[in-house]
Each structure stands twice: as C-alpha cells, then as structure tokens.
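ping. complex inputs:
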Amino acid sequence: MTSEWWRTAAIYQIYPRSFADANGDGMGDLAGITQRLGDLAELGIDAIWLSPFYTSPQKDAGYDVADYCDVDPLFGSLTDFDAMVSEAHARGIRVIVDLVPNHSSDQHVWFQQALAAAPGSAERGRYLFRDGRGADGELAPNNWESVFGGPAWTRITEPDGTPGQWYLHLFDSSQPDFDWTNEEVREEFRRILRFWLDRGVDGFRVDVAHGMIKADGLPDWTPPAEGGSMGGAAGLEEAVVDPAVAQAPYWAQDGVHEIYRDWRALLDTYPGERILAAEAWVDPLPRVAKWVRPDEMHQAFNFAYLETPWQAGALRRVIDDSIDAFAAVGAPSTWVLSNHDVVRHATRLALTEPNPQGHGVGPRTPGLGDPATGLRRARAATALMLALPGSAYLYQGEELGLPEVIELPDDARQDPTWFRTNGERYGRDGCRVPLPWASAAQSYGFGDTDAAWLPQPASWASFAREAQQGVEGSTLSLYQALLAGRRAHGLADGSLEWLDGGADGADVLTFRNGDVTVIANTGATPVALPAGEVLVTSGPLDVASAEMPGDTTVWLRTA
Ligand code: GLC
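pong. complex structure:
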C-alpha cells in the first residue's frame, strides 16, 4: 500500500545531544530518546529525524563522521539504535536519520589513509586534494571560504615531513570534502544507505545536499557580503535572490541530481516508502524544487519560508510561491521555522536587526527584541504553519516555546563557527541547549544528574515540559492542539484558499483549508474576530469584544 505518508507528515527533529540523557553524563543519548518516545507520541507527530549519532570526534557536533555505520559510544550502541527504532515503530512513529555525504571527519579511515599516501594516489582521490599555488605551493589552491569562516583549504604535511598538498573543506578543517566524481565514493555511500535501510530506517535527511559537486577546475569565487553563509539569502528583509549566490561554484551544481536519482532508485527497491529529504540552502524556490523532481528526493526543506519575516504580505507570497514551486514537480511543500542551525523562532521573530543564518546571537548582538513578543509571534507563526497543506518540520524544544539561549558563557561555546571567526560570530550553540523536562529536577530532568554539555539558563524552570503538560494556554498544549487539529481536519492534505489580506502593507492573513478558517494577525493592532467556533488560538482572545490581538493566529470552524 502506498500512503505517501511523507506528503503530510509532521516530522520532529531530535538533536540527540540535547534531547534526553539516560546515563547522566551530560550528553543526550539513544536510550534517552527511547524513554521519551511516549511523550512524542502524545505530542502527535508522525516521524522523528535524528541529527547524527555516528562515531565522531564531535568537532561539529557529529556532522563530522568517522564511521558512518556505527553509533558513537557517547550516544550508545547499535543495539540501542535498534531498540529505539522498534519502540518508535511500535508507537507508529517513523524514523529518519541524518546522512552526511559532503564530507567526513578527518578521523575517518579514508582520510587517514589519504594523509599517509602520496599525492595522486587512489587514497587521496577520495577527497579533494590539490597542489597549492605560489612558487612553493604555499598559497591555497583557490580563494574559497569555509561556511564557518576562514579559508576552505588546509595544507597538510606529507608523510616525509615536507609541507604538502592542500585539501578542501567547505566547513571545518576537520571535515574534508569527498570527491563525488569518484565512483568509489558513490559506491561507499550506497553501502551506507543499505546499512541503515536494512536496519529499518524510514528515510534520510541529506546534509548539505546542494554541495557535493564542485565546478570543474574549482574556480575562484567571492560570495556577496550579505548572502547567508549556506547559500540562501538571509536577514529580516524578505529573501531576495542574489544572482551572484546562484553562481557559487560549490553550491547547487547540476551534477548533484544524478546522485539523488541513483539513491532514489536504491530506496525504491525497499518496501515501506523510505524517503530522502534535502537540506539544500538554495534559492529561489523553483530552484529548490529541482531536488524533489519525481525521480529524486521526496522533500526539501523550505528555508525560504523559515527566513520570511513575520509579516502578512511576505508570508502570503512565500506560501504561494512554495505551493506553486513544489506542485510544479508533483511534490508537497514542506514548512519549517526552526532547526539546530538557526536562531530559534521564539527569538528570531522579534529580532530588529538582520542576522545571517549561522551567525547566531549572543550578549553583544544588537536588536535582540523583546522575548515576550518573540514567543507570542512564534506561537502564532507555528499555528499558521501547521494549518498549511504539506509536511511540517518541528525542532525539539519549540513545543515548549524555548527561546535561543543568548547568555551562554564564551568558554562554554562549542560551535566551530565561534572558533573560526575568533568569536565574531556566536554560531549555533544557543539553539542546542539541552531540553528542560522537569522544573525542579537537576538539569531540569534532561538527565538524573546536574550535567549538561551546554549550561541551561536559570530561567528555564517555567519552560519545562512537566510544568506545561495539561496546562491550558501553555505552548505545549498549543502544539498538541495544533497537531491534533491538523490531523482531525485533514489540513496537511488539504488545499488553501485565500480569503483576505496579505496585500502589501496589510497585517492580516486569512485563508480557508477545508472546514477551517485561519486568521493570522501579524501586526500590533487588534482586529475583529469573524464569527465561528474557535478551534485553536495561539494566544488569549478578547471574546467579549470579539477581537483578536496582534501577533496571534486563530483557527475557526466555519460552515
Ligand atoms: C549542515 C548541518 C550543520 C552542519 C553542516 C556541516 O548544514 O545542518 O549542522 O554544521 O551541515 O555538516
């Protein structure tokens, strides 16, 4: 039977380091996830996506993989993984894992072999080693910069002790890029896909799915100053496509699509609708849609939506553009507001200054805005998102209304971005702080000790899951109501009809999806609440005056 479950799925991202810590060492683990699956079932999600838990020196929180087919002891074992998958499946929750094909860790056996081998060898040929420029090869092969700041090349010392070749790393120097023109690399990743498919996973979220192929000759390239670091435009203004971004010789090269066709064919040999979801920071949307043509991936993250400000006109445009662009290739749109790489939307939506993706926020960031406004907008934005047709991604902790942690001490920060820019960019640690489960417990119940790999703020007691469970008006109760309503009214499978608003300068958006009318007031001024039974509201309503305040979204049942 084909249900095409992924077209409508609500997929919850677990960042394993920070979700739940079963052994009390301060680092979340697979056993912790298994213990908490009941809470996720209760939340009402369809699938979980796990960020990497593979063997890794953890230079980029596990996105630096040393062994793609094993579990890092920090997170448990393959046995723990199997137990987690079977428990999830028993609860009707599908499991998606992260696949990191653009680069490995420098501790991967292949990279260690490459360092020990000679220039021009088959071992070096699995990565992108090049001779340097300049009289003695002392200059990097080209001018590319790492997404995390600093040069994208590192020079090695040859086995004989002389200064040697350079290798490419679009991210940290501990993350050498594979050469995807090499068939051996392709075959190895087919093996990795099969390894996890055979273990029962329901799909893969493909990391940096726009970066694996580089333009021939690796030509010099200077990115535009205002571009987002991963390739998409970013900021408070509506995303504007910079034609220059579209030309980066390492993003969105046509050659990547052949790889995904190959993987799709492989996945299709497995029963049970296993899926591929692309992390492709590419714009505009019709370009992203190339990743989800019928014989490629199933889904692509909609970062254009994530980057849209809380403003009715901009939202209406991005919603229309998303639905149109994905429908043109027969794919569902996806929707997402937060993940482990961006400032949590409860903080981001109140920022008053542009903040490029990946830069993060900290105590010295200007324009942080008011946290209460941020939370109100985040709740309203989620209520809008979960009424849209398509598949939605949620990031752990947003169901608690967690803000970005701004006051992390400098010496606690771990994101390579922080180190590679000498603290100029804070990076992404603020959205990765371990979750609060219980107000009064040590580490807020993240584990049963006070250990947490990033310090949790003193102010988090009120955000704890236990403090919100069953409490009317809590963010957790709101998410439960939204997810249940989305399912009961078939919204993810529905279609959208605009009723009003969204004109330039307007603050209110109104649309219908099936028997639900959704009104989002993105402005500050209260507006009249139309007649109808209130199914869900993201914030308090003044029923007596029949008004909805600003920064609020309401679902009404209409005849
Ligand atoms: C992706 C991941 C991010 C990681 C980067 C390098 O963007 O989401 O966390 O740092 O790839 O693997």
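The first helix runs from residue 16 to 19.
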